[in-house]
Amino acid sequence: MPNPPRIHLWTPGLFDFKGGIQTYSSFLLQALEQIDPSLQIDVFLLHDRDRKGSEAFRSRFHCTGHIPARLRIAAFAANAIVAAIQQRPDLIISTHLNFTIAADWVKRVAGIPYWSVAHGFEAWDVQRPNLRRSIACADQILAVSRYTRDRLLQEQSLYPGQVSLLPNTFAAERFQIAPKPVHLLHRYSLTADQPIILTVNRLAAGEAYHPYDRVLVALPQIRQVIPNAHYLIVGAGDDRPRLEQLIAASQLQSCVTLTGFVPDEKLPDYYSLCDVFAMPSKLEGFGIVFLEAMASGKPVLGSRCDGSTDALAQGKLGALVDPDDTEAIAQTLIQILRKSYAHPLMYQPEALRQAVIEAFGMEIFKQTLQQLLNSRFYSQVSPWFSKDISIKTFL
Questions:
Q1: Distance between CA atoms of 282 and 250, rounded to whole angstroms?
Q2: Per-residue confidence (pLDDT) for residue 393, from 0 to 100
Q3: CA–CA gap between residue 277 and residue 334 (Å, rounded)
Q4: Which among 77, 104, 198, 240 is most buried, taking Cβ atoms within 10 Å?
Q5: Which residue, 176, 146, 179, 180, is CA-closest to 163?
Q6: In the predicted model, is pLDDT for residue 392 greater than 60?
Q7: Three-state SS across 233-246?
Q8: Which domains does the chain have, with CATH numbers?
Q9: Using CA atoms, how far apart are residues 145 and 328, in angstroms rounded to an integer?
Q10: How many helices and strands, by DSSP H and E, does the chain display?
């Protein structure tokens, strides 16, 4: 019998930092291991310094985070390329499009196919010729949303079958329906019956659009109808000084709280604290935070102009607005807080939680990934592998 298939997974990291790409990469690795326990997987991590946290996986890890930043990318690429040439994996999967440049070189030299994941703005408006070429030469692009897939097909030299959907998933067991945490009410001087709007977003000064800005502009109008409404912004970054000035200039200090950085393990309490989660964005490739909020039983407001539409299932799971329409943002949030918005599921926490798990839980993620592997990978590299095998075999 031939040797089991071997996959090399290239990712920015899994353990040291929990951004969206890192979270997706972790779920992807978990799914690969569970779908096929015979897979041999080597994981190459750009920024992680060591293997702390890898105990939950059976794959082998190769870290370059201990190398000085100015040399790290070159060291990561060299390490991954040499290992690929030596080990000849059946497939390279890159969870960041920038890594496809090295993967394309490996494919041309050694004939090893590669897949990559397209998340959001890193996949939009790509201008670098070498990156455009490596994206076009990928054997498969896994897009996290229809929005990202459609933009790739419009902007790059790709054919439709080259781009497949593998939407984000989330750890549903971490997010539960629970009362507002008393310790957070005390910390932020809030009351249990006070309407609370929540946004969880990085505070990045370099971005052209900030969803929390739009909610802040809408807040005075919201407070005319709901005087005690409070806005909580969770996140850290270099945009905080400008944000603080904006809040002061609008005289909103008494009704807006900037929490700063909140560790990943404490986020569930913040979802429990709010009455509605709002992030009317323009730059989201998907938005895992929407799933986390809905799994906590909270109604959500997102944008109809980016990948948020996928996270909200085109409006079936939450409210979608034009992020440039302050009036729509204000009126929709007022209606949600007063439970008059015409979307009954948003006020049924248990049903909302179940709906988001059925749409985006780990089981559906694994099933989708398995179908992609069966049709585009196993059928080519492992004739002995049954395409009809059930995922239940491995659970």
A1: 23
A2: 31
A3: 13
A4: 198
A5: 146
A6: no
A7: EECCCCCHHHHHHH
A8: 6-169+361-394 (3.40.50.2000), 172-358 (3.40.50.2000)
A9: 24
A10: 15, 13
Q: How does strand 276-278 pair with strand 196-200? A: parallel
Half-sphere CA count of 344, side-chain side, radius 13 A = 1
**How far apart (Å, rounded) are the C-alpha atoms in residues 343 and 20?**
28
Whether pLDDT at 43 is above 60: yes
Answer yes or no: is pLDDT of 344 > 90. Answer: yes
Max Cα–Cα distance, the chain, nearest Å:
72
CA nearest 80: which of 58, 41, 52, 106?
106
d(CA 128, CA 125): 9
Q: How many CA atoms lie within 13 A of 308 on its CB side?
A: 25
pTM of the model: 0.91
Token pair belonging to 330: 């204000």
Residues in CB range of 180: below 8 A, 6 or more apart: 192, 196, 272, 273
Terminal CA-CA length for the chain: 24
What DSSP string runs through 300-353? EEEESSSTHHHHTGGGTSSEEE-TT-HHHHHHHHHHHHTT-SS-GGGG-HHHHH
Q: How confident is the model at residue 16 (pLDDT cuts 50, 70, 90)?
A: confident
Rounded CA separation 386/32 (Å): 16
Alpha-helical runs (H) found in the chain = 20-35, 69-87, 100-110, 129-136, 146-155, 182-187, 211-225, 240-249, 267-273, 288-295, 308-311, 326-337, 349-360, 362-373, 379-381
The DSSP H or E segment spanning 122 is none
Residue 145 tokens, joined? 């949303």
Q: Is 222 a residue whose pLDDT tops 90? A: yes
Q: Which two tokens stand for residue 76?
A: 């990561």
Q: Which two tokens stand for residue 257?
A: 């709280």
